[in-house]
Write a structure and sequence with these properties.
The complex is a heterodimer of chains A (259) and B (356). Chain A is α/β, with parallel strands linked by helices and 259 residues long. Chain A has 10 helices and 10 strands. Chain A is 37% helix and 25% strand. A 6-stranded mixed beta sheet of chain A has the order 6-7-8-3-9-10, with helices on both faces. A 4-stranded antiparallel beta sheet of chain A has the order 2-1-4-5, covered by helices on one side. The longest helix of chain A is centred in the middle third of the chain and has 21 residues. The two termini of chain A are 35 Å apart. Chain B has a two-stranded antiparallel sheet with strand order 1-2. In chain B, helix 1 runs antiparallel to helix 11 and helix 2 packs parallel to helix 5. The chains are: A alpha/beta (259), B mainly alpha (356). The interface between A and B is large, with 50 and 47 residues.
Chain lengths: 259, 356
């Protein structure tokens, strides 16, 4: 096991009835890197995210996560909210915005341990007003980066599909986590917005040392910022390497395009 | 003729008690998405706790033998009415104590009850709570010291010693009104706060909320502690106001009456619940008063109640499907947004076409 890894997925398998969604996948995510995870449809990328974040436990294998103090802890089978509290934030491939919350409120949900979220403090406004104002500022700045200030008080049902996707990703980025799992953040985005998002991810990575694991089908864009790429195919690891190595790997090309 | 003043006091007392139920149901069902079809379980439990504390404890405290002077025998009731008229301090003390006890026991009961079922779907939660209401009723009916099918009477009203019925009713109204007001402030504060936002998010999509770090079962059950406790207080208030409890008072219909109130008023707006409770309790009380006036020759005006409630509900659902007062985004957060936008010199386009 490498010392600089933040997440180690060790021989993880997941079966659905007879279907092997993941079979003995071993992946290490180096800390402070942008790691891409690619593979054709049905290769197990989202299943891997679900297993890591505790949506369902793996049938075999272990998931180890390095805490702030540098010790690896076993997070296999923890509840989703417990994984989140350890600093792992995921976004969904199919956006799951809260329909009766405005875009702003959707963004404000993410920050953890908000003071006004406890029953006692919620009754005393002075306890949470200042924090709320700061969070609104953070959300507004985030929206401003993408020129989306005009949608702040709209509801998800009034947004375009690209905006929904963008807000889903931004909701994850609202609060500093140590490891982000982004599930197809670029799908449905126009090129300009996609590049702004990539720039933001790159900045968060370079300036704040945050780690990203990104599932993406727009491989060309992903290659621009990824330090390392893993390729999944039919539930097992097909290849891994730098973007340059992956692009020239005949196995990968075959998996995507066929014989 | 109807005495307007006493009618108003009577209606307002009913209204405040039912409004506590409706407001807490808004927090449970409308804001947090807990389908509580067992509202009457908590209301009834609170009423029975209130009845027991205000009779047995009172009798024991004043040195009466509780086995002889049970609150469902003639001796018991006459002794209790004597106490109510002559011992103001201890009666009032016991009364407020009974409210506190109802809150704690009913709240804990609610929390215990909801914890195992909170992880399953809304339908299961609804049916579990619905059946618990019925089971409790069967238990009251078959417990001797709770008076069985006849229930308990002679529960002393805390202000009977004032002699003037209007004055004592007014004092009682002041108590129910202040508890109603605190419940209203409590629920609307929670609604406007970040906790309210989390609750609405859980209602919309509990899986996504779980992935955003919210401990959904824990949050839901602590809210449920609060709302069931308050329903219990409403029950105790009701028992002391009516002066008696019996199992027939706590049928499923009570639950759906409260549901009708919040559906009419707007299921996720605290003010809507107050409006719905005011409207339905007014119809209810008017019909009750009208019964002896119209006379019970061919039919009792009481029978009109379900028809009235049904008609009001259909009319409102056709005209305003979200109820009289639909949910609005919290003002505080919206205010911060406006402020932040002004600071960076942006006009909030399209901001207010959505918040009509």
């Amino acid at each position: 096991m490498k010392e600089d890894a933040i997440l180690v997925i060790n021989e993880v398998s997941k079966y659905f009835e007879g279907l092997k969604a993941l079979s003995k996948v071993t992946i290490e995510i180096p800390e402070k890197c942008i790691v891409g995870l690619i593979g054709p449809n049905g290769s197990g990328k989202t299943t891997l995210f679900n297993v890591i974040t505790g949506f369902y436990p793996p049938d075999e294998g272990k998931i180890l996560y390095k805490t702030l103090s540098g010790i690896f802890v076993d997070i296999t089978g923890l509840n989703p909210h417990e994984v989140f509290k350890m600093g792992v934030i995921r976004t969904f491939q199919i956006p799951r915005l809260f329909p009766s919350l405005t875009v702003l409120e959707n963004l404000l949900i993410t920050p953890l341990n908000q003071r006004g979220e406890s029953v006692v403090n919620s009754l005393r406004r002075s306890k949470w007003l200042r924090e709320e104002e700061e969070l609104v500022h953070r959300a507004v700045n985030l929206l401003k980066t993408f020129n989306r200030l005009n949608i702040a008080s709209k509801y998800p049902s009034e947004l375009s599909i690209g905006d929904i996707k963008l807000i889903e990703t931004l909701r994850g980025l609202m609060t500093p986590a140590r490891l982000y799992l982004l599930d197809e953040p670029l799908a449905g985005l126009d090129l300009h917005t996609a590049r702004s998002l990539l720039r933001l991810i790159w900045k968060l990575n370079k300036n704040h040392g945050l780690t990203f694991l990104i599932v993406e089908h727009r491989v060309d864009l992903l290659m621009e910022i990824a330090d390392f790429i893993y390729v999944l195919h039919n539930g097992s690891l097909l290849a891994s390497g730098t973007p340059g190595e992956i692009i020239n790997d005949p196995k990968v090309v075959r998996a995507y395009i066929g014989e | 003729m109807i005495d307007v003043l006493s009618f108003a006091i009577h209606w307002l007392t009913y209204f405040t008690i039912y409004a506590i139920l409706a407001i807490t149901l808004v927090l449970e069902a409308g804001i947090s998405g807990i389908t509580n079809f067992g509202k009457v379980a908590f209301f009834g439990l609170g009423a029975y706790i209130g009845a027991v504390v205000n009779t047995y404890t009172l009798l024991a405290l004043l040195g009466y033998d509780v086995n002889t002077y049970t609150p469902f025998t003639a001796q018991g009731v006459s002794v209790l009415s004597k106490i109510a008229a002559s011992e103001p301090i201890i009666v009032i003390m016991i009364f407020f104590m009974s409210l506190a006890i109802s809150f704690v026991i009913t709240g804990l009961f609610g929390r215990l009850l909801i914890y195992p079922v909170i992880r399953v779907g809304a339908g299961f939660v609804g049916f579990t709570l619905l059946s618990v209401g019925e089971i409790l009723r069967a238990i009251y009916m078959n417990t001797h010291f709770l008076g069985g099918t006849y229930g308990m009477f002679g529960i002393p009203q805390p202000f009977t010693w004032l002699r003037s019925p209007v004055l004592s009713a007014l004092c009682y109204l002041a108590v129910t009104f202040s508890i109603f007001l605190s419940a209203y402030i409590l629920v609307s504060r929670i609604h406007e706060s970040p906790l309210g936002r989390v609750l609405r998010a859980i209602r919309d999509d509990d899986v996504a909320a779980l992935f955003l770090g919210k401990d959904v079962p824990r949050i839901k059950s602590s809210v449920f502690f609060l709302t069931s406790g308050l329903s219990g207080v409403a029950g105790a208030l009701y028992a002391c106001y009516v002066g008696s409890v019996n199992p027939q008072m706590f049928v499923v219909l009570v639950t759906f009456n409260v549901w009708a109130m919040i559906i009419i008023g707007g299921s996720s707006s605290p003010m809507g619940a107050v409006l719905g409770a005011a409207l339905l309790s007014l119809v209810d009380r008017l019909l009750q008063y009208a019964t002896p006036v119209i006379g019970g020759v061919l039919f009792s005006a009481d029978y009109l109640r379900p028809i009235f409630i049904g008609c009001i509900m259909i009319a409102i659902l056709v005209k305003k499907p979200m109820g009289l007062l639909p949910e609005k985004p919290p003002k505080i957060t919206a205010g911060f947004l406006r402020k932040a936008l002004e600071e960076i010199g942006e006009v909030n386009e399209g901001g207010c076409d959505t918040c009509d």
